[in-house]
Structure formats: structure tokens, C-alpha cells
What does this fold into?
Amino acid sequence: MSFLPLRTERLSLRPHRSDDAGPLLGFYRRPEVARYLLHGPWTEDIARERVTRRLTRTGVDGPERALSLVVEHEGRVIGDVALWATDETGAKGEIGWVFDPAASGRGFATEAARAVLDLGFQRYGMHRVSAQMDARNTASARVCERLGMTGEGVSRQDWWSKGEWTDSLRYAELASDHPRDHGDAIVVSAVMLPDAGGHLLTVRKRGTTRYMNPGGKPEPGEDPAACALREVREELGLDLDPQRLELVAVRRTTAANEAGRPLLATVYRHPHLAGSRRPEVTPAAEIDSARWVDPEHAGDDDTLAPLLRELTAGGLSRARA
It folds into this structure.
């Protein structure tokens, strides 16, 4: 978690600690804070239980698929912000926040939420992040508007909460809404291409030692799917059907051929090409060689790139039912 704590002009956002139960209880116990949340005011027991649960929410790419951060101003806990994945690929997420009323009116919620939104897009490569709230929660709605998130309307009486049907507001931001800075990460698109027997096509680029999924870096203004299709066509002579391209995952991992660099990959799957058990490929451009690998044994193959080994270990090379 070398990217934490997040620091803004006035705030520090860090993972939860066990001793955060007391400071958070100070405002979570207040009825006006819990009014539009899905739970009632906290007690001491609830505070300990909730904080314990949050201790493991240290990254959207981790087992919990969530990041929960305490917000501090001048060393005092004033709120918390969370970001979590809402689909199995990690391309979509949701953000939420709670702040001490004593810290209201100073723009802290907007400042903290902006930092976490940017993290979702720039570190985790999310395509879309939404925020949902009780339609009566005008304070959170104003935060969304200050963030520049797009209002997507009201869902009428779609949530049963605290003995009544309540309306919900939804806001969202897309990765394409603003320019994004991914730092030193290498941004790529990749495609998992199986043959009829389930073996995966892998490629090795000139001057490198690891085999990886076909794909590459996007051109300026090119979206991830278009990049994947172009790279496979240019480097392997295969024309894929855009409508059959299935999003598998958005992953941050270690680059195979550039030591010390992180890799931010949008990964797709495409069914095997009809007409032959194993399509004929013609390596071109940067590709030096291609080979088919059995995903059942890929996890132990040191000649494969880390991303490919991670994906096969997680069963993502197989088509969904």
C-alpha cells in the first residue's frame, strides 16, 4: 500500500486502525448523521465491529475488493470515504462518504472524495464510478455536483429503509470525463484468445523473454476495446468481432518486460475463431513468436507474464456460463 496515505492540500486519507472506533463513534452515534444511512446510530459495540470489518478493506484489487479510508484534518478524524468494485471485472465502482457535522461547510468531503475518485480511475483503471444516496440527502448531492459528477435521475421508492420506501439519487463519473494521469503505470489492452480446446494464444515481443496475452498500448484518444482489436489485427493478422469481445477484468500488476514498472491492463476475452480448431496466426510488427499454452498449467510457467499467470490462476480464461 505504498500509495497510502493519500494526501490532499488539507487532508490525509489512510487505512483504518483499531483505535479509530472511538473517533468515528463520536459522530456516527448522532441521529442526524445516521438519518440517511442504511443503518441507525452506532453504539460502542457496533463501532468496534464496523471498524474491525474495515481493517481488511485496503484495496479494490484485494480480496475484499474495497478500499475504506479514514479522513484526518490536522491530526483529527473528521470522516471516512470508501470505494468498492460493483462488478466482477473491477471496471465499475461506487463511492460513499460520511463526515462529522462539526467539519461541514469547509469543502472537506469534496476534497476527500475527489482524491478517492481519482484513485479509482488512475490507479485501478475503473471505467465508471457512481454514488447513490437517499434523495433527501441534499448535502451529499451537493458534494456530487461540486465534484462534477453527472446526475442520472431519481429512482422512486426503490429502497426500503427504516420502515419506509425511499427515493434514491444517482450520480456518476466516467473515466473519459476528464484527462487521467496514470503516473508511471504502463496502460495496455489485452485479449485472451482460446482455441476450440481451451488453449490460450500467447505472444512474445522482440527483445523480451516472457509470453503474454496479445495486445498493447492504446494510441492517443483510443478506447481500450478499439486498442485490443487493432493490436490483434496488426500483430497477428486476426480480425476479431467487436460484438463478441467480452470484458474480463481491469487489473493492476507488475510489468513483465520493464522492471519496476506497474501495469494497468484492461483485459478482454474473445471466443475461438470459427472455421478451424486453432486459427492460423501470422506474427508481425513487434511480435517475435507465438505459442499456445494450457491454462491449467500456466500458473507454474515462469516463461509467462505475471498478468497472464494471475488471470489463468483465477479461472478467467474460461468462458462464463
